[in-house]
From TrEMBL:
The protein, known as: Short-subunit dehydrogenase
Keyword entries, A-Z: Oxidoreductase
GO cellular component: membrane
SUPFAM superfamilies: NAD(P)-binding Rossmann-fold domains
Stretch forming the signal peptide: none
Protein family according to the UniProt entry: Belongs to the short-chain dehydrogenases/reductases (SDR) family.
A Pfam family: adh_short
Single GO MF annotation: oxidoreductase activity
Superkingdom to which the source organism belongs: Bacteria
InterPro entries membership: NAD(P)-bd_dom_sf (IPR036291), SDR_fam (IPR002347)
């Protein structure tokens, strides 16, 4: 296996898209470092992935705390060949009503920890002249999102940042890829308090994290700049690109507002 001895570091690697990505790396012979907040979840995921014949290290860190994100960088002594910034959180509700501290935690996790980890590990990759970075953006990167105003803003940052650094480093041997899923069947919406949203109530419209991870993994290995996962999401973004931004914001408001608001 050509990847034997190589290591992928995956944040948010115990559930959802992050866990499915970890399985794909393990299938290809990568050793893994998985990072999440909950040690029990890390242990059970580690047991599952180790059974695939690769070495799995676990590190429990809350990456919404900047000192923990920085500590993660210094604690990892082995070479990281692939960095996957998957850990992220959302928060549902009107901006004027949402808790400020939760919004700031989200910005710290979704944006700041991505910047901290990318800077640290990319500088290590530079000394070797090779490496790969996969950043979890979202189709939220491409459209304003009423009811998730700050979350959509953080994902717009991730997408823009990924493509900008990719261009800066195009001759470095390091590739940067952004994965843009749509609404996916994970615990994300539950944690974001978003179960009332129309988009989540329509279970049939949610993507399977297995499919999303596969799209992201293949784009990463091919060195692509970004991939929008799923035909429906590609079509939606193509349509949104043809509309004025204010009209897109209105369309997203209709999709994301609570279902009971329709009955008033």
């Amino acid at each position: 296996m050509e990847n034997q001895g190589k290591t992928a570091l995956i944040t948010g690697g115990t559930s959802g898209i992050g866990k499915e990505l970890a399985k794909l790396f393990a299938q290809d012979g990568y050793n893994l470092i998985i990072v999440a907040r909950n040690q029990q979840e890390l242990d059970s995921t580690s047991a599952e992935l180790s059974a695939m014949g690769v070495k799995v290290s676990t590190i429990a860190k809350d990456l919404s705390i900047m000192d923990e994100a920085k500590a993660l960088c210094t604690e990892i002594t082995q070479q990281v060949d692939v960095l996957v910034n998957d850990a992220a959180q959302g928060l549902y509700g009107l901006f004027k009503d949402n808790d400020l501290e939760r919004e700031l935690d989200m910005i710290h996790l979704n944006i700041c920890s991505t910047v901290i980890l990318t800077k640290h590990f990319v500088n290590q990759m530079l000394t070797r002249g090779e490496g790969k970075v996969l950043n979890l953006a979202s189709i939220a990167s491409k459209v304003p999102g009423p009811w998730q105003a700050v979350y959509h803003g953080t994902k717009a940052f991730v997408y823009s940042f990924t493509l900008a650094v990719r261009e800066e480093m195009k001759d470095s041997g390091i590739t940067f890829t952004a994965l843009l899923p749509g609404a996916t069947d994970t615990d994300f919406f539950n944690k974001a308090g978003m179960n009332e949203s129309r988009i989540v109530q329509d279970k049939d419209s949610l993507s399977d994290p297995v499919d999303v991870a596969k799209d992201g993994y293949e784009a990463l290995m091919a060195g692509e700049d970004y991939v929008i996962s799923g035909f429906k999401n590609k079509a939606m973004i193509t349509g949104a690109n043809l509309m004025p931004d204010s009209a897109v914001a209105h369309m997203m408001n209709e999709q994301q507002k609570p279902v009971e608001q329709d009955q008033h």
